[in-house]
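Case study.
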Amino acid sequence: MAVLDERRPLYEIKANLFKGLAHPHRIRVLEILSSTDEASVTTMLADTGLEASHLSQHLAVLRRYGLVVSERRASVVYYRLAHPQISELLRVARVLLGEILTDADSQRELVNSLPEIPDAR
Amino acid sequence: MAVLDERRPLYEIKANLFKGLAHPHRIRVLEILSSTDEASVTTMLADTGLEASHLSQHLAVLRRYGLVVSERRASVVYYRLAHPQISELLRVARVLLGEILTDADSQRELVNSLPEIPDAR
DNA sequence: TGCTGAATTGATGTAATCATCATATCAGGG
DNA sequence: CCCTGATATGATGATTACATCAATTCAGCA
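After joint prediction, the assembly is written out as follows.
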């Protein structure tokens, strides 16, 4: 468990968890798995429209971060969430975003006066 | 609100939220703010031990992601969480990590046979 | 006005992540 | 055994994030 290793400082471990979640395709995958208990790679290929190797690489990082587990049955590989709390985490994030976005919406006019800031340090 | 903009697809917005959280220093800052309602930059400098410009840049990304808000009173700038749910999100993450890490711990011996994988695609 | 402390911004080199494409493994079926 | 479908891994170039240091703004005070 190299990435979420408890010998590291706690805030680094937490940051790593969020890094594992910090990509649209991976969120997609986790939401699919949140809704269906388990899913084959083929299924997820169809659902996401990704190229096979691309999906596979994101699945690899999810595995590496300990967020999903996989099991091979015959020639098909099935994935599932490693912990049910992951969907809980996504749920809380969804609620939070709901609030952030409605706030943002009500302030849209004010905020629109600002230029886009392309870079994030 | 360029980063968490609701005109983007939802899973991209969520990924952006997690990106904002995906750094140890930023987790540090958010936890400080979770515990103290508001904190000045000077305070956080002392708490984190970071260099001023470094902290300031991370505060900038937190602002950019809409996770914190700042207010200047006299010559001191105070930060606070933009939404109380952010500490809830951190709390859920902490619980999840607790589970992941104890699982990992019980499997330590098995897992230790694996080499470290440096790269994350 | 010009100092000083507080905080932010800008510039630059380095490292990590991403997307794409090619190649490799792995498990049956013929 | 080799072929084919299903997945995974490797290599490469492009983009983005990070750390560091210099320069700037900003508010109050001498």
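Observations recorded in class. The longest strand of chain A covers residues 68-73. The mean pLDDT of chain A is 85. We will return to this complex in the next lecture.
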